[in-house]
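Archive maintenance. Older records in this collection stored only the sequence; we are now back-filling the structure field for every entry so that each record is complete. The fields below show one back-filled record exactly as it appears after the update. Entries are processed alphabetically, and Peptidase S1 domain-containing protein is next in the queue.

ARCHIVE ENTRY
Title: Peptidase S1 domain-containing protein
Organism field: Chilo suppressalis
Length field: 321
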Amino acid sequence: MGVIIIIMLVTLESGCLGFVFELESLEAILFPRRNAEADADPGLIQTIFPNLINIEMDAPKALESNYPWIARVTHSSGYNPHVCTASCIHERIFITSASCIFSLKVNLTSVIYSDTIIPALAFVLAENTTKQLFDDIGFIVVKKEYEGDWSTIDIVNQNRSGEGFKWFADWKLPNTSGEYKVVGFATDKTLKENAARVPYHLHELDVIVDINLCSTILSVNGVKGFYTPCYHSCTLEEHQTNKKCDKYHGVEGGAVVDVKAQQLLGVATWSAATRKIILPVGFSVPNSKEFYENYECAMRIKNDETRVVRRPSHYQSLCSD
Ligand SMILES: *[C@@H]1O[C@H](CO)[C@@H](O)[C@H](O)[C@H]1NC(C)=O
Ligand SMILES: *[C@@H]1O[C@H](CO)[C@@H](O)[C@H](O)[C@H]1NC(C)=O
Ligand SMILES: *[C@@H]1O[C@H](CO)[C@@H](O)[C@H](O)[C@H]1NC(C)=O
Ligand SMILES: *[C@@H]1O[C@H](CO)[C@@H](O)[C@H](O)[C@H]1NC(C)=O
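Back-filled structure field:
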């Protein structure tokens, strides 16, 4: 099974995830290093983004009781530092963006769920990552330290047909308002990033989901890319006709929810947006082959009854065929 389980220190060979920039022009964002080989498959221009910076602009506060499956991930046994948002999809199993947990240590990580701080037991990540982890979901299996009922959200129940994202376009999801919301822990964009005690609150935002958002908006000088699932606070038409599209919600692991079906359509993973430029946010749909493999692995770890785990390879061995 193609999974990597991390239960010890992770050294990140990232190159791409660890730095933060704030640039003013879209061109500068999309082509921070001009590279002749613009890689068009699956439509991601040769470009590099930092992690989503967990901010919102004019996104209303949400009640956790309306989203009892939502959780926050912290790199301590308390509320700070906050790192990202996660969703509970099964008892003791949470999903978030892979890029959120790539650089964390398992034994320092907690999931705060239903007002309870639960220590992480293991992370499960895909062995073969997609470019810049755009389409990668990370699993956190937590220890058995929560006694209450587990509220979970169902994940979208349609599989992919084929490579790339044509299947997503073929789904013909409604691209009008009121159908989808993004939910996750965010801070006001004006608060200073990385300040030790910036408060993160649960916010929600009505969003438009459309495969054409990123591929159209993030094109520069005719170079198109990013034919991937994205959401935005306004429609493509509104964006193009300079209507006010000044709301934003972009957090690592943010949950893209199908409001009527009450299903999780996606997990926010990337954006070129900065504190100054509002742009659509890309998400990963939890239905790839790797997703299912890793989910199976997370279940085996959850179900494992070994009392004293002596070797870090123990959990890995549960998932190797
Ligand atoms: C990961 O990539 C390697 C090399 O391309 C390949 O041999 C392997 O089968 C891949 N694993 C999965 C789970 O796709
Ligand atoms: C986490 O693990 C590291 C090494 O594996 C160890 O040195 C450290 O004490 C552990 N920290 C906690 C809080 O358990
Ligand atoms: C999607 O694929 C997974 C893994 O192959 C399978 O377990 C699941 O039942 C499929 N779901 C649907 C709705 O076909
Ligand atoms: C919105 O969806 C409709 C119906 O599927 C489609 O015809 C239209 O092109 C879509 N709009 C955009 C901007 O993609």
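Update note: The two ends are 6 Å apart (CA to CA). The longest strand covers residues 116-126.
Entry marked complete.
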